[in-house]
Amino acid sequence: MSCHEEKKKSIVFIIFGILLSIVLVAFTGALIYQIYKLQVLPDKILIPGILAIILFGLILLLVLNFCTHGIISKIIYSFLVIAICIVYGFGNFYLYSTSKTLTTVTAQSNKAKNTVSVIAMNSSSMEDVKSLEGAKLGVLTNIGKESTEKSLKDIKKNKVTYTKSDYDNVPSLIKALYDGEVDAVVLNEAYRSNVCDIEEYANFNNETKVIHKTVYYTKENSSPLAVSDITAKPFNILISGNDSFGSLDENSRSDVDMLVTINPVTSTILLTSIPRDSYVTEVCDDYACNYGVTDKLTHTGMYGVDTTKDTIENLLDIEINYVYRVNFTSMINIVDALGGVDVTVPEGMAVSKFYTNSNLEGVHEGENHLDGKRALAYSRERKAYLDGDVQRARNQQQVLQAMFKKATSPEIIKNYVNLLNALIGAFDTNMTTDEITSFIKYQIQASPKWKFEQFVLKGDNDLRVSPELGSEVSVVILYDSYISIAHDKIQAVLDGKSSDTVEAQEDTPAGTLSEEEIEAQIQYGLMTEAPSEEEGSEIYYGN
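User: That's the sequence. What structure does it adopt?
Assistant: C-alpha cells below.
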C-alpha cells in the first residue's frame, strides 16, 4: 500500500473518530441531563455516577483519538464507542419515558367529564337528535338536575321541540321507558350501572340505544394536603377505584375505597378498607353533591373523587393528604405489565369460578399466579364468600400488596418499559412529580423493609332508601366501634406506632358459599345474576 493511500486512510479515520466523539459527547450529555432531571437517585449515588460517566467518556475519547495507531485497534475502539452510544441511547429513552410518565400521571386537568344520554328502546325508530322532534322525554326531577338541564338545553339548540314527563327516581324513570309511557329518557351515564343492578333491567345495555349525547365538564378541587417531606413525614392516601372500563376522566361509582397510611420513618403501611355499600353521610365542597344526606359510599364517586374523599374524612375524622384514582382497565394493564402477581389463598377460601367473570379460572388454596383479568376478578369477587364485601376488601388489599412487592423488586427491570406504558393514563393523582420522585429516591437509598398491616370496617346488612336512586337498596350499616377503631389505627401509624397496638376483634375469613348455596340465593331473590358487558356475568345483591 502506497504512502498516499496510508495517509488517506489515516485522514478518514481521524474524521470518523472526530464525528464519533461528537456523537459520544452528545449522548453522554443527554444521559447526564436526563439522570439529573429525573432526580430519583440519592446524592451519594448521583454524583459519583455522573462523575464516572464523564470519566469513562473522556477515557474513550482519549484512547480513540490519541492512543490507537493501527487500523485494527481503531476499528475495535470505534465499535466499542458505537456500542456505548447505543447503550446511552437506550438509557436516554428509558429515563425520558420515566420522566414523561411521571409528568403525565401528575398533570391533573382538575376537570371531570360528565356524559348525559338520551336513551330509547331498541325497537324505537328514533336514531338521532332530530328524530326527537315531538317526542315525550322522561326526566329526573329530584336528582341529577344539572345534567338533565344541560341535556335538554343541548336538544333545544338543535331546534327540536318535545314534551317531558317528570320522575322522582331512577327505577320509576326506567320503568316508564320500558312500559312505553315515554319515548326516551334523559340519563346521566353515571347512573347506568345502577340501572343494570336492578333485576328487571339487568339487560338494559343490550335492550336500549343512545339517541344523543351531551358532554360537559365539572371542576374538581382535589388540592393535596401536602406534607412537608414525603420521605420523613407520615401521610394518608385515598385509593378510589371506579367501577368502569376505559378513560379515567369520567365520574362513576366508587367501587374500591381504600386508605393507605404510610409512615416512612417506621416503614409501616396500613391498608384500611371501607365497604362500598357503607351507608354514610355525603360531604362535599360547594354543595356539589346531595350534601348531608345518607347514601351508599359508592354513589359519592358519581360526584367526583373529591366528594368520596370529603365523605371518608368526615366518616373517620381524619385528613387525607393525597388521592389516587384508578379503574378496571388500569388494574388489568398494570398487573399484566408487572408480569402478573402472586397471591396466597387461605384454606377454605378457594373459588372454583369467579362470579364477576365466569369465563375465568378461579383460585385454589395456596399460591396462585394471576394475570390482569384474574387479579381484577379476584379483587371484585364477593358473591362466593360468606363475608361478601369484607372478604372482597381483604382480596383487594392482598392484590395491592402483591403489586407493591413486584414493583419494588429487581425483577421489575425486565418489565420496565411495559410498566411505563401501562402507567400512562392508568391513574390520576394530586401528588406532584417531585413528591413521587422523592419517594422513589428514598426507596432506592434506604431500601426500607415495609411492614404491611390491614383493617377492614364491618357492619350489618340492611335495606335503606338511597337518595340517588329514590328507592330502597341493600346497604351496610357500619359498626360505630369499627369506625372508632379505624380512626385509632390510622392515628397510631401516623404517630409512629403499629396499628396492632389498637385492639380490635379478630378479623378472619368466614369461608365461601357453594355453587348450590349461590343458586339458592338467586332462586329466593337474595341475589340476582346480571350479564356484564365487559366482564361476563356478575351476581348482585340488590343495588
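Residues 77 and 83 are 10 Å apart (CA to CA).
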